[in-house]
Amino acid sequence: MPKLLELDNLKIQFHTSQGVAPAVDGVSYSVDTGSAVGLVGESGCGKTVTSLAILKLIQNPGRIAGGKILFDGVDMVPLPEDEMRRIRGNKISMIFQEPMTALNPVFTIGSQIGEAVILHRGASRKQARDRSIEMLQKVGIPSPEKRVDDYPHQLSGGMRQRAMIAMALSCDPKLIIADEPTTALDVTIQAQILDLMTQMKETYGASILLITHNLGVVAQTCQKVVVMYAGKVVEEALVDTLFTNPAHPYTIGLMESIPSPGASGSKARLKEIKGQVPSLYNLPQGCYFHPRCPRAMDICRQSQPELKALPSGSRVSCWLY
To answer: Whole-structure pTM over 0.85, yes or no?
Structure first.
């Protein structure tokens, strides 16, 4: 499959009074055309910052310090802002984690969906309204011709998330970045949102970059997984490979911390990864995970391992391999 998005040695730094924080440090991965890739890891590992960099939405004091972001073969890092405006919401769309803060409370849902259609497709107000109703219907919102005139506060959490998805899909983007799209939704709505995203991928051929800490969601929707830790990629694998044969000790820890449906009683303690993600201002020497790793060796405390290809097709950054 051809690569739609390719990150090559991407580096993002935040320059603050405390010093320079390498939020993303040499990250490389790709998203194939028509595929879904899951980006997982603990909070603070650089997942959301990476996604914002793809849209060039990193704000001061952050900046892209190096590397390439290739979309359809074009490096977007040097592109001027007016070029990026033509890409955002048109070729690349983002579904944000919290729709109540991403949606403007003083505009109707229909006007917010239609705005992108007017801007990128040159549609009239009437055409934009018709497109908004069509998109609300496609994402399963009942009575879309009425809901199109509702304000965000008049919709439930699940409906707001659907409206966000309708907005993201209104211009038939090639890439959809979904940042924790099911956070704070009940499990029934979660399942509906994930089914909807899969359906949109299959129907429209869009690629999806799904940012989440929920490995169950990844198993259900993605073909490939990228695992990040402290601003670095520590493992990249096909979903089946990752769930049957995780390679990196951090990935193994994440897998073991998933609650087992059969486990019950006081003896069935949930496993945890001891310690916490290090501060970006005070990263350990060598492998960033070694202070928490049960299999750490002397070399782990001295040198940073490179991403290496395994016979399984996975890539892993670990001195065990």
So the answer is: yes
